[in-house]
UniProtKB/TrEMBL annotation:
The lineage of its organism: Eukaryota, Metazoa, Ecdysozoa, Arthropoda, Hexapoda. This is Uncharacterized protein. Residues 1-17 form the signal peptide. Keywords: Signal.
Amino acid sequence: MKIHFCIILYLLTHIDIDFENIYSGKENFLFEKWPFLIPKLLTLMHTNIKDSNSRELLKKLCNQNSEIDLVYVYSKNTATNSKRIIKTSIAGARNSFLLLCANTSDLYTKIQNKVDSYYEKKQTLQLLIWIIGDEYMDSKEFFIYYFNTYYKFPNIVKAVDLCFKIFNYPIQSELAWTFLQKYFYDIHTEFDVKSSALISLMSDLSN
């Protein structure tokens, strides 16, 4: 497999054009709404997060106001036992949303291992966000692996935006992606996962 980095402008432009053709006027909703979500979500997290590691991350997040930390804490707390979705652990939900790598060499190795594993199971590897750093708190590099190509992004929000626009949601983190779809992009379909927790979250954030 040939491994290389590439300029993402061409890809992003064409994906945005296709997305706008289908969902006119909604292509920039994530970027426009993101700053307003953070204070609301932090307030809810203070009350609802029970996992000790996530609560510790939340304390640091409040001090640093880091986008990557918010995505990480949120993705860890979207595991669900919905009948439509397989019951998954917090770690399983998180790892289908984003993964941490120590360096680029580790990135290549982990992606190749995942590709090989999915190939053996005759499954398709869905997109997820790969982060390089010693820990989630200090990550500065963000990548998406797509059709044998590594795309680098300037921040976590742009990586999330691209993933949302071009892939089918992984089962383990379907609830998290459905929240992004409904809350940020205001897209609602008959195929959306049904979840009382999601309905409650949407209601709380709308207040």
